[in-house]
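As a warm-up, study this chain.
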Amino acid sequence: MLNEALDFKAESDALYALMKDLDDAAFDAPTQFKGWTLNNVLEHLHMWNWAANESYVDEDNFVSWLDGVLKAMAGSGGMRAYEAEWNGGKEGQELLAIWHGFYTEMAARFVEVDAKKRLKWAGPDMSARSSISARLMETWAHGQEVFDQLGVVRENTDSIRSIAVLGTNTFGWTYATRGETPPGPMPFVKLTAPSGDVWEFGEPSDDERVEGAAADFCQVVTQVRNIADTDLQVTGGVATDWMSKAQCFAGAPETPPAPGTRFTK
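Now compare it with the structure written out below.
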């Protein structure tokens, strides 16, 4: 059983529960993330959920689709326009229902997938475990702007562990995407899970370490909060540099939000 698929569904369900009673007008309000609306969030999550699923069920079709989508998104409209077109212009509760139905089926499918099965993606191939973990991460990260917009404080569960793992595994990626060399080994990371469990990553060190709530760490590596807006304790030059620009998602380097710009309304 691929437990990360269950975590993906749990986080998706939490976001669905938050949005299921909204009127359609609420889906058009701009959020603190680049002015994305709730419709933009759903368009993005649904299309890339479909892509991850397609890479498993029909690899050839996925590769063909990806070639076309990358060319289309290089045009003047960019990714937002393409995602809206791909979703057929659907919005509000109609789009929410489509996203909900698909992720439910997808999660059930991925539970049974061999965790080590290699799947095609926009970058290097990845394991099925990494693929569904990435969908969990994106759902959780983009879900944060929805929670913030609606003024709801998120109640996290230990399903965020995969995001913490991804955050530490991409220490080198944070620098590679910027054409930089890491200034040293990954700092020791000690996190307190929502359940109270302690998660540790890397070699223990008093000189280079990041310590605090797992949710805070996940917010920083997904760039939904500036490190200054969390209670993480950061010790050492390498740890400080990493947390100033940590990036666990693919693509070009992104700048974390400025202090105080992302918060629950």
